[in-house]
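User: Here's a chain of 301 residues. Predict its fold as tokens.
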Amino acid sequence: MQTLRTPDDRFVDLPDFGYQPQFCDLDDDDGGTLRVAWVEGGPDDGDPILMLHGEPSWSYLYRKMMPILAEAGHRVICPDLVGFGRSDKPTQASDHTYARHVEWMRALAFDHLDLQNVTLVGQDWGGLIGLRLVAENPDRFSGVVVANTGLPTGDIPMPEIWWRFRESIQAAPKIDVGWFVQSGCRKPMTDTARAGYDAPFPDDSYCVGPRTMPSLVPTSPEDPAAAANRSAWATLCASETPMLVAFSDGDPITGAMGPIFQREMRGARGRAHPVIHDAGHFLQEDAGEELARHIVEFLRR
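Assistant: Prediction complete.
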């Protein structure tokens, strides 16, 4: 598997994100290895919170939330998905599959970090990957937070706005990641914040991951990932693992999933679930501090 690695100097002086990256090498499922990156905050002996980002962001998305969760005594772990952030970036679209992304995050969280008693926080693809981890490794998790995400099986049509996003990011001559993140927010970002989202992608050759991920979302019942996602749905619906559903009020892509999680997931029933107001798809950017406080309260209870 051929990969690119973003030069370190692209990540110098990122605003409010001075965490030292950590790295490990994982099997790439193609006879080689991939370097995968993550950042941590909080005490080493705190119960871990595994925070997974989505498309086309990276762990920088969680910079407003990490200090609040760490101050509450939790060990906060924010990986960069393969193809994003400081993690290696496969150069061929065919290198990216849903199953591989699940396995890469499983290997990092459990084989390398050996995390136990984990709370997942998953948004966008962070939920698509993370919810599979929860369903397939239930003994590792003690809580789940879903935030503007889903677990598509291809049995229900995706919203039209998602299809427009998929077409635009695949057809764009050059991907402006900061612009795509801003377009998914309700509040304006500073130029330095937008530059932080652009940092992992010096030019378009580094953008195979962002271009490819939308095509991996199951959109038909025959999709390669559909059966595994259906199985995960069944497992999660019956699971008693506590679940917090923390969706924003301004996400046209995944907003309809919030009530479904609350109704269908056993671990979500009987709980007060917050609505994050005046926030878009990237609610961590629009209202990260508020979302973090809701998670602290959820874990305290």
